[in-house]
Amino acid sequence: MLMPRDVYQQLAANNRKLAALVMFFPLALAAFVYVFLRLFESIYNASNYQDLSNNVRYEPVELLTHDNLMLILAIVLIVAFLIVIFSFTRGKNLIFSLTGAQPCPQDSEHIAIFQAVENVALAAGLPTPKVYLIDDKAMNAFATGYSPKDAAITLTTGLVERLTPLELEAVIAHEMGHIMNRDIRLNLFIITGIGVIGLLGEILLRVRSRGNSRGKGGGAVIIFLAVGFGFYLFRLLVAPFIHMAISRTQEFQADATSAHLTRHPQALIDALVKISENPTVPTLANTRAFASMCIFSPLKNLSHLLDTHPSIEERIRRLQEMS
Description:
Blueprint: H1 4-46, E1 50-51, E2 56-57, H2 66-99, E3 102-103, H3 111-124, E4 130-134, E5 141-144, E6 152-156, H4 157-162, H5 165-180, H6 183-213, H7 218-262, H8 265-277, H9 282-285, H10 288-292, H11 312-322
Parallel strand pairs: 4-6
Antiparallel strand pairs: 1-2, 3-4, 5-6
Helix pairs in contact: 1-2, 1-6, 1-7, 2-6, 3-5, 5-7, 5-8, 6-7, 7-11, 8-11
C-alpha cells in the first residue's frame, strides 16, 4: 500500500514536474513559434520571383531579425507568465464552468456524500474538500484545486446513484489521493495552461487572417500567424504526450492511496468495474485535457498509445495485490 513516505516522494516528484513544466512552456512555445516563423518566411519569399520580361526584381523579406526575435520572445514570456497566474487563480472556476459542475446541495438527500468526504479527509489528515456535482447519468469523478485548502471533489449524479457507500467512499479516497499528492496543482496548470494556449492560438490566427484579407501589414501578419500556429500546434501535438506521461502514473498512485485510506481495495475494484460500463460524461469528453483528470477516461481511443489512463485490467491487478 501507499505509505506516508511514498506520499512525500510523490509530492516532491510533482513539485519537480511542475517547476519543469513552468520552465518548459515558454521555451517550447518559443521554439514552435521560431520554427513556424522560419517556415512562413521561406514560403513568403518563395512566392516572390524575378520578372525577367520587365526586369523587376522582388527582394526577399527577412522576418527573423533581431528586433522581431526579441518581440516574439517578449510575447511568449508575457503569455507564459499570465498563463501561470491565470491557471492558479482562476483555473478551477474555469473547469467548473466548462464541465457544468455545481456545488452539491447540503441537504438530507446528499448527507451521505458529505459524510464520506469528511471521513476520508480525516483519514488523510487534510481539510475537507468542497463537493460538486455534474448532473449526468454517466459515472465519473475528478478533483481539482491549487492546494488541499481550496480543493474540490466533483462527482456525477450517476456515480452517486449507482455505487454502494463503500464504493463511493473508495472513489472519494482516490480523488483525495490526487489532492494529497498535489496532482491537482500539476493538472490545473496543464489543463488550463494548455487550453489557454490553444485558445490564444485560434484568436491570433483569426484576427491576423482577417487583417491579411484586407491587405494590412505583410510582415506583421506573418509574425502573428507564426505565433498563432505555434501556440495552436503546441496544444495539438505536445499536450497529448504530456497528459499521457503524467496521468498514468498519477492514477496508479491515487488507486494505492485509496486502498491505504479505506483499507478496502476491493471496493475501488468494484467501483472501477461499474464506472467502466458508462464513464462518458459529454462535458468531460470534449477535450483530452478534461479527460485526463477523471478517475476513468471518458474518451474511447482507437489506439492505446495516447491513453491518459492505464488499462482497467492493470489497475485491478495492482489493487488485488494490495488485498
